[in-house]
Amino acid sequence: MSGLLASPTVINNVESLANLPDIVLNGADWFTTVGTATTPGTKLVSLAGAVRQPGLYEVALGTPLRTILQDYGGGPSGELGALLVGGPSGSILPPSLLDTPFDVQPLQAVGGVLGAGGIVALTSEACVVDAVRELVAYNARESCGKCTPCREGTQRMLGLFDDVRVGRGHAAILQTIDELNDVMGYASLCGLGQMAPNPVRALLRHFPEVVGEHLAGRCSAGVCTPC
Questions:
Q1: Residue 175: in which H helix or E strand, if any?
Q2: pLDDT in tens, 94-148
């Protein structure tokens, strides 16, 4: 493997590079005083959606989701229905998990991911199935098309989700979705295809009753209209 101009190349994101001057000046021990023992430091959080104070915030890793939402975001702008954590390939989580620390392992334990650090609050008036459908569509558009599991899998998942969303699906479709998630997660060449199943898996894990309503041709939020 070679990098820029066929030479060895170090690739880091800006957030990682921004930490280096402080670590050089203050030392590694200083850096580990912020965050958690397993994941020291801070994380930039892009807080958006139904919050009173949306914006970009730097928070210590391990900060509970509730604290990020309330203290940084000023609280939800309506009755909270769900949180999308981790960006387009993140996971949708219910309000019952607001005390989960914003950290790698705690999020993984509840089927979530730290991801790009995005947090989007959804009110109870928003449909979580509809929201995840938009994430599925995004990943389908962003697929580079190089590998078959991602190129075909994301498009197939979008079709299946459209069937669920508007009540054309049936109970067996969930098994097909699970199998397709496994194929994309294990066989895709890059992170986009490998991570694309995350929002779908979290939806099925944490909002099975809402998915069941859609399979029966109902959307309690009144957003999805069956054909």
A1: helix 173-187
A2: 999 999 999 999 999 998 899 889 999 999 999 999 999 999 999 999 999 999 9
Other beta carbons within 10 Å of 45: 22
Annotated domain spans of the chain: 42-123, 128-215
Helix then strand then coil, in percent of the chain rounded to 5, is 50, 15, 35
CATH class of the structural domain 42-123:
alpha beta
DSSP character at residue 86: S
- Does residue 222 come out as left (phi exceeding 0), alpha (psi in the -120 to 50 range) or beta? left
d(CA 149, CA 143): 10
For the stretch 20-50, pLDDT in tens is 999 999 999 999 999 999 999 999 999 999 9
Strand bridging mode 55-60 / 91-93: unpaired
Q: Kindly state the DSSP code that residue 96 receives in the 8-state scheme.
A: G
- In Å, what is the CA distance from 28 to each residue of 24, 33, 172? 8, 9, 52
- State the average pLDDT over residues 74-100: 95
pLDDT at position 226 over 80: no
Take residue 67 and report the two structure tokens written for it.
């604290």
* Beta-bridge mates of residue 45: 57
Mean confidence (pLDDT) of the chain: 91
Contact status, residue 101 vs residue 113, Cβ threshold 8 Å: no
**The domain made up of 128-215 is a member of CATH 1.20.1290.10:** no
Tell me what pLDDT residue 2 has.
66
